[in-house]
Amino acid sequence: MLAERKVVTKIEANPLLTAREKERSLVRVAAYCRVSTDSDEQLDSYQAQITYYTDYIAKNPDWRFAGIYADEGITGTKAEKRPEFQRLMRDCKKRKIDMILTKSVARFARNTVDSLSYVRRLKAQGIGVFFEEQNLDSMKADSEMFIGIHSVLAQAESENISANVKWGKAQSAKQGNVPFQCKHFLGYTKNADGEIE
Predict the structure, then answer these.
(1) Could you give the CA distance from residue 175 to residue 98 in angstroms, rounded to a whole number?
(2) Beta-carbon-side half-sphere exposure of residue 22 (alpha carbons within 13 Å)
(3) DSSP-derived secondary structure letter, 79
(4) For residue 44, how many other CB atoms are within 10 A of its CB?
(5) Cα–Cα distance for residue pair 121/78, rounded to 1 Å
């Protein structure tokens, strides 16, 4: 008795469905950038961070660009005073982002409580934060202790800078040099010698 030959027909996957499935499997990555002053040096850093992360995300074939969130000229000591950071947190809550890249713990927050509470909140949602300078991934089990240490150092540095600035302004005032922002007062300008007119 002859064995019956079986014929197998291969049906190719629908390319539209395959493309959609690949798109869904890509990690949606956003970046958070921040500089604390409007100085030219800081603004160069701000623009450099935005350009760097836009290119960095685009070059990874497993990632999909989910946006750049950037606060310019804003201190990192209070999260509620950073509009782009708050927009990032809202978009995370809406499940628009899978991972956040940031330059360092100090760029993410200069307040230990904010830093750890937001990292924990994001981790609970399955969203990791990667701190590039410290090479820390918040989704890894041992990362929280190191994020905490770096957060304490960032907060201490911020407090030290603030104390130094206040001291410098007090010393300048004692010598009779009081800063006066003419551009905010109608009718006042500074001449070539820096004197108020």
Answers:
(1) 54
(2) 9
(3) G
(4) 11
(5) 16
pLDDT by residue (tens digit) across 179-191? 666 666 666 777 7
At 94-139, the pLDDT tens digits run: 999 999 999 988 888 877 778 888 989 999 999 999 999 999 998 8
Closest C-alpha among 155, 156, 167 to residue 76: 155
Structure tokens belonging to residue 7: 């014929």
Q: Is the dihedral of CA 176, 177, 183, 184 positive or negative?
A: negative
Residues 6+ apart with CB under 8 A from 80: 86
Non-local CB neighbours of 125 within 8 Å, separated by 6+ positions: 92, 93, 95
Q: Distance between CA atoms of 173 and 167, rounded to whole angstroms?
A: 10
For residue 93, give every residue at least 6 positions away whose Cβ sits within 8 Å of its Cβ, in sequence order, or none: 125
Spatial strand order of the sheet with 128-131 comes to: 63-72, 27-35, 99-102, 128-131, 136-137
Q: CB atoms < 10 A from the CB of 53, how many?
A: 24
